[in-house]
Amino acid sequence: MNLKAIATVALPCFLLVACATNQNDMGIDPGETYANAANTGSRQMASGRLVLEDTSIPKLTIIYTNEDVARAVGVINARVQQMGGLERLTGSIKNLSTTQFPIEYQVTWTDAYDGALNSSSPWIRVTLPGRGKKPFSIIGKDPHAALATMTIRVPTDVEIIVPGPDPEEAMQYQQIYNQRLGGYQE
Predict the structure, then answer these.
(1) pLDDT digits (tens, 9 = 90+) for 101-123
(2) CA 114 to each of CA 35, 60, 118: distance values in angstroms, whole numbers, following the listed order
(3) Residues 6 or more apart from 145 whose CB is under 8 A from it?
(4) CB-based contact 86:139 (threshold 8 Å)
């Protein structure tokens, strides 16, 4: 198959548009807890590159495999809680663009001392509609599971292109992130 035919068919399907300028434009309700490396200005290093590991939610680490994923996807209302003697991770993955695209995520569990457990989930592939969200619920099947790590990636057969964030937008999200962190440190 020639390159022009591939570009004509595949590229429009997976091209992401610019992220919104505030949470309401992204369809995030004011009451939702929102975690996203692109939209928390304090997650940017001095070089302007994103830090791809979000630890702002207790007992959960969210790892974005690259900057495009961190800009295009957010995790909302995520929490780890105990139910019936086992830990359970719940929340939603939110597409911040207007274009539909697939993502994959995996959750690994560790014990309270960060020791690996043999209760990880497989890679789960979902297609996120533009500005849409998909709920998730993952149970740590080991009674010693205490901490969850969610890794989010774009499948290897997909390419996404996302423009960089607006500096004013980054400052707004840094303020939101700092306020949220201030609540956990009390």
Answers:
(1) 899 999 999 999 999 998 778 99
(2) 22, 12, 13
(3) 86, 87, 109, 110, 111, 117, 119
(4) yes
* Whole-Å CA distances, 171 to 28, 33, 63, 86, 174: 18, 18, 22, 38, 5
**116 bridge partner residues:** 110
For residues 56 and 180, give the distance between their C-alpha atoms in angstroms, rounded to a whole number: 8
Instruction: Provide the residue type at 17 as one letter.
Output: V
**Dihedral sign, CA of 17, 23, 26, 32?**
positive
How many whole angstroms separate alpha carbon 63 and alpha carbon 146? Answer: 17
pLDDT tens across the length of the chain (186 residues)? 454 443 333 433 333 333 333 444 444 455 555 665 444 433 444 456 676 999 999 999 999 999 889 889 999 999 999 999 999 999 999 998 888 989 999 999 999 999 999 877 899 999 999 899 999 999 999 999 999 999 999 998 876 666 666 677 778 778 877 887 776 554
